[in-house]
């Protein structure tokens, strides 16, 4: 095995390593994807779940901004990735130790889970960051590598869905944490994106040292980046509302919670086609065009939930559109963000993008739970579908405005 590995070229070895980091990360993540169902079993209402997730999203803002700036300052995505994977896996695995059935259980979980999210909230961000940046710098096929992550997420989802009646929802926490040790091991041997470029740069001049800082104002003078952040607010309000209340929707139409993993796995499987086609799509269409089609497809799922889905097959039909749209968004959005950001602020650009998505998550959680309880499952998802369409409209209008001004997106 060692001889075979040595015979592979540097690009192939790095592709295998990144598959181990990102792909197995998503496999492990699938086993820990039952937090909302666990909280529903513990006794959280939709509104209480919304408040908890809003607090966790607020912590996520601090998390991604903090770890993003740490990454840029120390010049290492890899070290930060290892830190957040290790801390998140350990703390998440300890969640079931909080006693159930006590009057204070809801309060204890409301305190503990945001603390966990300081690490866990940045795990997927940096797992994607190291893959996107290495793929761009080494000219690897990002879509192919990321599709392996979606496939392994599907495999993991189906496995845990089959095992759930035997292991119980509470054991998914520590199983996921244990599996996360594998991508941590791969991360130790990963290439640090941008390391060679930074080493080749000349030392800063004395006057530059006096200025200090990361000069984040550069990001916010980039109007295309700012417009993308505005779009992200509406888009992630939608994705937050869509994702968090699926267990409650399933309960409304009497689909067993054990089938949740099948839904998540099927959606992840449908991400793969567009990820595999991403290289060809990028040759034919600008990334901004691919981004704008994502919410249009994802809206179809929510509108389907609101109009006709009444059982598991109906939900699977609707989830087809969400999976395709999410695959298109995964393959295009981070690369679009990478394209917009200056070289020395790429990690911070992604960190602030995720921070904005966390702000949207706060709004989505606080409003989503209240609206779900007040309006009912079907009307709620119809409303979310309409908001997805509105987010697409916002992005299109921003592109038209940039084109009218002759900005960078007009090219």
TrEMBL record:
Compartments in which it is found: Cell inner membrane
Keyword annotations: Cell inner membrane, Cell membrane, Membrane, Transmembrane, Transmembrane helix, Transport
UniProt KW Membrane keyword: yes
Pfam families for this protein: MFS_1_like
Membrane topology designation: Multi-pass membrane protein
Any one GO molecular function term: lactose binding
Residues of the Major facilitator superfamily (MFS) profile domain: 219-411
InterPro entries: MFS_assoc_dom (IPR024989), MFS_dom (IPR020846), MFS_trans_sf (IPR036259), Sugar_transporter_CS (IPR005829)
GO terms for cellular component: plasma membrane
Transmembrane domains' residue ranges: 12-31, 51-68, 80-98, 104-123, 144-167, 173-189, 224-248, 260-277, 289-308, 314-338, 350-372, 378-401
Protein name: MFS transporter
Native species: Candidatus Acutalibacter pullistercoris
């Amino acid at each position: 095995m060692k001889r075979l590995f040595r015979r592979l070229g540097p690009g192939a070895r790095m592709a295998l390593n990144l598959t181990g980091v990102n792909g197995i990360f998503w496999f492990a993540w699938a086993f820990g994807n039952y937090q909302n169902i666990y909280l529903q079993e513990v006794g959280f209402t939709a509104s209480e779940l919304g408040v908890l997730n809003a607090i966790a999203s607020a912590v996520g803002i601090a998390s991604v901004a903090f770890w993003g700036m740490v990454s840029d300052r120390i010049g290492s995505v890899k070290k930060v990735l290892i830190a957040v994977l290790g801390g998140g896996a350990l703390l998440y695995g300890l969640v079931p130790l909080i006693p159930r059935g006590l009057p204070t259980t809801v309060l204890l979980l409301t305190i503990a889970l945001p603390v966990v999210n300081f690490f866990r909230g940045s795990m997927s961000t940096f797992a994607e960051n190291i893959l996107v940046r290495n793929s761009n710098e080494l000219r690897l096929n990002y879509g192919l590598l990321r599709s392996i992550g979606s496939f392994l997420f599907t495999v993991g989802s189906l496995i845990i869905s089959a095992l759930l009646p035997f292991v119980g929802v509470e054991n998914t926490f520590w199983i996921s944490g244990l599996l996360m040790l594998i991508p941590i091991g791969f991360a130790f041997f990963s290439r640090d994106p941008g390391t060679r470029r930074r080493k080749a740069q000349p030392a800063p001049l004395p006057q530059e040292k006096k200025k200090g800082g990361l000069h984040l104002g550069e990001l916010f003078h980039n109007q295309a980046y700012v417009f993308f952040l505005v779009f992200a607010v509406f888009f992630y309000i939608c994705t937050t509302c869509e994702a968090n209340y699926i267990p409650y929707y399933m309960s409304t139409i009497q689909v067993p919670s054990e089938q949740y993993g099948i839904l998540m796995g099927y959606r992840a499987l449908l991400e793969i086609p567009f990820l595999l086609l991403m290289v060809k799509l990028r040759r034919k269409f600008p990334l901004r065009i691919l981004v704008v089609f994502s919410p249009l497809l994802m809206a179809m799922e929510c509108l389907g939930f609101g109009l006709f889905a009444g059982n598991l097959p109906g939900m699977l039909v609707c989830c087809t559109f969400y999976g395709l749209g999410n695959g298109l968004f995964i393959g295009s959005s981070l690369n679009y963000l990478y394209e917009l950001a200056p070289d020395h602020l790429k990690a911070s650009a992604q960190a602030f993008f995720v921070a904005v998505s966390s702000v949207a998550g706060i709004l989505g959680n606080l409003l989503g739970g209240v609206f779900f309880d007040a309006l009912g499952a079907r009307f709620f998802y119809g409303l979310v579908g309409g908001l997805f369409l509105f987010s697409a409209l916002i992005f299109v209008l921003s592109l038209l405005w940039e084109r009218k001004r002759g900005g960078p997106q007009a090219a």
